[in-house]
Specification:
- The chain is an all-alpha fold.
- It is about 80% helix and about 0% strand.
- About 50% of the residues are buried.
Length: about 300
């Protein structure tokens, strides 16, 4: 009687792990879609969010999460968070076109480190324990990667800064929505915040004079599916099954996939020092996930 249960148990345990890895791989392909799209980078971000909204709304309804009827204060907070996410995508997508895909992925994920720093401020204390190695590794890795970018071109260094700004804005998005997540379902929250994000992205794209409507819809549709639906959806499912350490380690596959895509599609070759910088920043991201102060 026990054999069927024990035989199926490994498959049950492997399903969240497969979702965690696949979600990170899907998110890592986002910069590649941004590069090959024939719209402006911010306009591409608009389509990433806008095309995914109907699917997110359907997922919210399917999971019994309300689309309407949110308290006004909660709704305003969610919309403000969506504004921050829209500006994050605008900054990050701009940086993707100016730097290497591996750098863009790493610096775009800097939100973990920003949240750690924000925790120190909120708790009014200095880093301690393994938090110090995380901060030192992040600074050393970032210095190496940015130094290498400057050696290639000041333009790639500017791209690094845009991606880092995107990571900071993403941290702001997470902080703003921290309390809303306790009362609003995840899919409903993504739907409402996505409306504000889409509006912000369209506004920035129009101000920048970007091309809005693509001639080839495949890259923007692929981006919406990979980053906003598959990537986010798989991570929403998988994150509750793992500790921050496992989540942080899985995050390291993103720069590896992005670096491979950059090499195969755009001839972006990484030097040994680039790999050292990636390893340092990646290790810092893992430590940040483990050590971020909780409130």
């Amino acid at each position: 009687m026990d054999a069927p249960v024990s035989a199926s148990a490994p498959r049950v345990r492997l399903l969240p792990l497969a979702a965690l890895v696949a979600g990170n791989v899907a998110l890592a392909m986002g910069p590649w879609f941004v590069r090959i799209a024939d719209t402006g980078p911010v306009a591409t971000g608009f389509w990433r969010v806008a095309l995914a909204l109907p699917a997110l709304a359907l997922l919210a309804r399917a999971n019994g999460q309300p689309i309407g009827g949110l308290p006004r204060k909660t709704l305003l907070v969610v919309l403000l968070g969506g504004l921050f996410f829209g500006l994050d995508v605008a900054s990050w997508h701009t940086g993707i076109g100016l730097t290497r895909l591996a750098n863009a992925t790493l610096f775009g994920n800097a939100g973990s480190l920003i949240l750690m720093a924000w925790g120190f401020i909120a708790w009014r204390r200095l880093p301690r324990g393994r938090e110090w190695p995380a901060m030192i590794a992040a600074l050393a890795g970032a210095a190496i990667l940015m130094g290498r970018s400057f050696e290639i071109s000041p333009r790639t260094l500017l791209g690094d800064w845009f991606c880092l700004l995107g990571g900071m804005l993403y941290a702001g998005y997470l902080i703003i929505l921290k309390d809303a997540r306790k009362t609003v379902g995840g899919w409903s929250l993504l739907t409402w915040s996505g409306l504000a994000s889409a509006a912000a992205l369209m506004t920035v794209a129009l101000i920048a004079g970007e091309k809005i409507v693509p001639d080839d819809w495949r890259p923007v549709v692929g981006l919406a599916i990979s980053s906003q639906i598959v990537g986010q959806g798989l991570l929403v499912y998988a994150l509750r099954h793992f500790t921050p350490l496992v989540i942080g380690i899985a995050l390291l596959c993103q720069p590896a996939v992005a670096a491979l895509a950059g090499w195969l599609s755009f001839g972006e070759v990484l030097s040994p020092m680039d790999f050292v910088g990636i390893a340092l920043v990646g290790s810092a991201l893992v430590l940040a996930r483990i050590s971020s102060p909780q409130d």
